[in-house]
Design goal:
single chain, alpha+beta, nine-stranded antiparallel sheet, three-stranded mixed sheet, 14 strands, about 20% strand
Length: about 325
């Protein structure tokens, strides 16, 4: 394990990451975050709880499992783009975008997280998300599933939920992943993340959880201190290809991962999660479906990793090695 400052290459994003494995030993006099407060099973002021009124005046149903609705404040929304065209200016480029933003509540309970849910309920949640993705992919070029959990990740409501944004434009991160994986496949006639998965399963340096169908690793090139990636053990290209059995085993590995996160600092661990697969209409052979987990906590429940300064102006920098993080999470 390299304990000296070094750089690691991220082939998925075609960028380098500076690793400074002794920075966590420096004295800390910076900001101390508050640990997540206790929340009640039902909050009468919550816009996501059953039977409560949302911002737009609509009333939530008395749902018993999951609840889906269109976000009251959409970042992308359906509109008539027939008169709008992409700008021809080299510097001031502009183009129309349309889509929709959905919210999926995982549970009627306000005080629960995926880590605390039964595996069957987690599987049912992912099945609900999958059906929504399948439906939206009939219309849009890209469907992004993501979950922001915890105040540290900017989550405005603690009620367990994720968001599904669909758009007729493919976002930057996906374009980048698509380009690098396609280039790798053209040069080596192989799937980049499948080869990476095989190497990680052999080395077992950065694996923290696995079952028959899935493996969780701290990526070799990880930026966030306890960042992880969930990879299938068979070559699945898109989320909509998962069978009911795949979803059940995915729910099992996700529950184990999230329980491990919560146990690390004895707190409800914040993170941003996102599902990535081949874009709609793209040839999918070069893709491997995967889930990214980006948690911000650095060395305790109240100290987070800030991506500022060098990270914003030069390149990503991490404070512990991926191997150190994996060893800690395994423990």
């Amino acid at each position: 394990m390299n304990q000296h400052p070094h750089r690691r290459y991220n082939p998925l994003k075609d960028e380098w990451v500076l690793v400074s494995p002794h920075r966590t030993k420096r004295p800390w006099n910076g900001a101390m975050e508050q640990a997540q407060k206790n929340v009640p099973p039902h909050d009468s002021t919550c816009n996501l709880c059953p039977n409560n009124e949302r911002i737009n005046g609509d009333k939530n149903p008395n749902y018993k499992e999951q609840c889906i609705f269109t976000n009251d404040y959409q970042a992308i929304y359906p509109r008539d783009t027939s008169k709008e065209k992409r700008s021809d200016d080299e510097l001031f480029q502009d183009m129309p975008v349309s889509g929709t933003c959905k919210v999926i509540c995982f549970s009627p309970r306000h005080d629960i997280t995926l880590a605390q849910m039964d595996v069957n309920d987690i599987a049912r949640t992912f099945s609900t998300i999958q059906q929504e993705v399948i439906e939206l992919e009939k219309t849009y070029a890209w469907v992004q599933v993501f979950e922001n959990k915890g105040e540290l990740m900017g989550c405005s409501n603690p009620h367990p939920h994720c968001q599904v944004w669909a758009s007729d434009a493919i976002p930057n991160e996906v374009v980048q992943e698509n380009t690098t994986q396609k280039k790798y496949a053209e040069q080596l006639y192989s799937i980049m993340l499948a080869d990476y998965r095989g190497d990680e399963l052999l080395k077992k340096e950065r694996i923290i959880k696995e079952n028959e169908d899935w493996v969780v690793v701290v990526p070799y090139w990880a930026v966030w201190p306890y960042e992880t990636m969930v990879l299938p053990k068979k070559d699945i290209h898109r989320f909509n290809e998962l069978t009911p059995d795949d979803i059940e085993s995915f729910a099992q590995i996700v529950q184990k991962l999230l329980k491990g996160y919560d146990a690390l600092f004895q707190t409800s661990f914040p993170y941003s999660m996102g599902l990535h697969g081949a874009p709609v209409g793209e040839k999918a052979d070069h893709w491997l479906f995967h889930a990214h987990y980006y948690p911000p906590l650095l060395r305790s429940a109240t100290i987070k990793k800030h991506l500022v300064g060098y990270e914003m102006l030069a390149e990503a920098q991490r404070d512990i090695t991926a191997e150190q993080a994996a060893e800690t999470l395994r423990g």
